[in-house]
Specification:
Pathway: Amino-acid biosynthesis; L-threonine biosynthesis; L-threonine from L-aspartate: step 2/5; Amino-acid biosynthesis; L-methionine biosynthesis via de novo pathway; L-homoserine from L-aspartate: step 2/3. GO terms for molecular function: aspartate-semialdehyde dehydrogenase activity; NAD binding; NADP binding; protein dimerization activity. It is an enzyme of class 1 (oxidoreductase). By secondary structure, this protein is of the alpha/beta class. The chain is built from twelve helices and 14 strands. A hairpin with a 5-residue loop joins strand 13 and strand 14. Helix 6 packs parallel to helix 8 and helix 6 packs across helix 9. The longest helix has 17 residues. The structure holds NADP nicotinamide-adenine-dinucleotide phosphate. NADP nicotinamide-adenine-dinucleotide phosphate (NAP) binds next to helix 1, helix 4 and helix 12.
Length: 357
């Protein structure tokens, strides 16, 4: 049994914020206590401030909550603050929350490269929490700390890569082409006249994020838990496209192994058998299977498979030999669940079980 923690959501009206609202409704560890957004929304009831775009109903208990300005004082009673803030404002706002000794789990890119801040995917590297005592020392914090989660496309990629790295050692090279959903750009996102009947072969900053973040996430915490050791061996090349899919990012991936090339069946087995700490700790949102491996030749597909395990699992299919690299496959992940809000929530569940909260 866990005493329910009071939580806040910053950026509560956005694409990620709405997913937080849904995932936190009826959560066994967390109870929504405060919601925040811009001055355009502050002072309004949540139901009037947000344009609700989810297929599930807006939970009753949230409808009349008053949206706050994103100031630490309004969230002082929160044990945890989840941030789905726009990156243009997240840096300054999250810094003020941390300065006030609050715990922040952020989806924004601003502090992912910070040398004492974990960049955490809950199906991969929750051991990076080990750096938190050092982070608190460096930032002069007593109970507060900051954890970021990865770019949504990076998240869907690193889970199968971690399964392969654990089983076969560090990879030499990864080539990935993504087909990303429009909800990944927030609301209203790409204009309909740009995305219908079309593929947009550019998402600003996305390829650089995938190419850099992978090395930090797949890396380790050093022996005295004061720094992250990135995986330098694995070179990543990414091409990102936006496609007319509502939710669910697809990634077509080719990998070259550092050691001997495993067979297709060995690769599938490594992914099927893969398990991670958030599962072992019994966290309520952890999927039973971190990776579902399909045998059907036309799966995974976003509309059919993105909600597998509530959107917390990664689906992999079409595992086969690659004539240029070693092995290729297709991965699918829900960009606002395991790719964003769900990632923060599962990371925070791990923090609860580890006694950090
Ligand atoms: N969408 C995804 O799949 C995804 C995945 C991973 C990470 N992310 C990251 O998560 C963050 C949120 O993305 P999103 O897609 O949810 O964006 P979004 O739909 O555009 O929502 C942005 C949120 O930020 C708030 N905001 C904007 N300016 C503000 C200000 N000056 N002060 C306080 N709040 C302000 C907005 O409130 P108002 O409604 O009041 O304007 C809204 O709640 C971004 O950093 C994004 O890169 C997104």
């Amino acid at each position: 049994m866990v005493d329910q923690k009071k939580v806040g959501v910053l950026g509560c009206t956005g694409s990620v914020g709405q997913r937080f609202i849904l995932l936190l409704s009826q959560h066994p560890y967390f109870k929504l206590h405060a919601v925040g957004a811009s001055s355009r929304s502050a002072g309004k009831k949540y139901k009037d401030a947000t344009r609700w775009k989810q297929s599930q109903q807006l939970p009753e208990e949230v409808k009349d909550m008053i949206v706050q300005e994103c100031k630490a004082a309004a969230f002082a009673e929160c044990d945890v603050v989840f941030s789905g803030l726009d990156a243009d404002v997240a840096g300054e706002i999250e810094a003020e929350f941390i300065k006030n000794d609050l715990v922040v789990f952020s989806n924004a890119k601003n502090y992912r490269r910070d040398p004492v801040t974990p960049l955490m995917v809950p199906l991969v590297n929750t051991n990076h929490f080990d750096i938190i005592p050092h982070q608190r020392n460096v930032k002069g914090l007593n109970k507060g700390f900051l954890v970021t989660n990865a770019n949504c496309s990076t998240t869907g990629l690193v889970v199968p890569l971690k399964a392969l790295q654990d089983k076969f050692g560090p990879l030499d090279a990864v080539m990935v082409t993504t087909l990303q959903a429009i909800s990944g750009g927030g609301y209203p996102g790409v204009p309909s006249m740009d995305i219908l009947d079309n593929v947009v072969p550019f998402i600003g900053g996305e390829e650089e994020k995938i190419e850099w973040e992978t090395g930090k996430i797949l890396g380790a915490v050093n022996a005295d838990a004061t720094a992250f050791t990135h995986v330098e061996q694995t070179k990543v090349s990414a091409q990102c496209t936006r496609v007319a899919v509502m939710d669910g990012h697809t990634a077509c991936v080719s990998v070259k192994f550092g050691g001997a090339k495993p067979t297709v069946e060995e690769v599938k087995a490594a992914m099927r058998e893969y398990s991670c700490e958030s599962q072992a700790l019994g966290c309520p949102s952890a999927p039973k299977m971190a990776i579902k491996v399909f045998e059907e030749e036309d799966r995974p597909q976003p509309r059919l498979d993105r909600d597998l395990e509530g959107g917390y699992a990664v689906s992999v299919g079409r595992v086969r030999e690659d004539p240029v690299f070693d092995i290729k496959f297709v991965a699918l992940s829900h960009n606002t669940v395991i790719g964003a809000a769900g990632s923060s929530i599962l990371n925070a569940e791990v923090a609860v079980v580890k006694g950090l909260l």
